[in-house]
Amino acid sequence: MRSLAAMLVPFFLVLSLGLVAGAPAASAPAAAGVPPPSAPWVPIADTGNFLYRQVGNFSLLIRTLVFREYLVLVEVVSGSVQAAGAGNNYNLLLRAADRNGTVRRYQTVVWGVPGSRDWTWKVISFQRVAGN
């Protein structure tokens, strides 16, 4: 029987390719996840954009794999983006449903480089927040 890690490698490859499809590549390589000292957080105007839904789904998938807490994205409520090295930090407020259909709010920060196959996406933080 194959180990769990051996079975997940192809899955993560497909997932990482899905996150980069259709997005423009970053221009200059730099340290991953290290924002310049003056990089501001810029509000996201269109949280329904496919890229932000992918980032939210990625965060929920990692949560499911690590904690076995199955969550389905309902919507990206709000968010902001910050330039960080070769990519961006995405700070998203999500509404997600558990297996029972209970919808709760979650705050996540994800780092990634849209359009690149050279960088691995990372969930920096994930937490449940009050309200629904």
Automatic annotation (TrEMBL):
Classification via InterPro entries: Cystatin, Cystatin_dom
Keyword Signal set for record: yes
Domain Cystatin: from-to ranges: 68-114
Region forming the signal peptide: 1-22
A Pfam match: SQAPI
An example Gene Ontology molecular-function term: cysteine-type endopeptidase inhibitor activity
Superkingdom assignment: Eukaryota
Keywords: Signal
Protein name, UniProt field: Cystatin domain-containing protein
UniProt lineage: Eukaryota, Viridiplantae, Streptophyta, Embryophyta, Tracheophyta
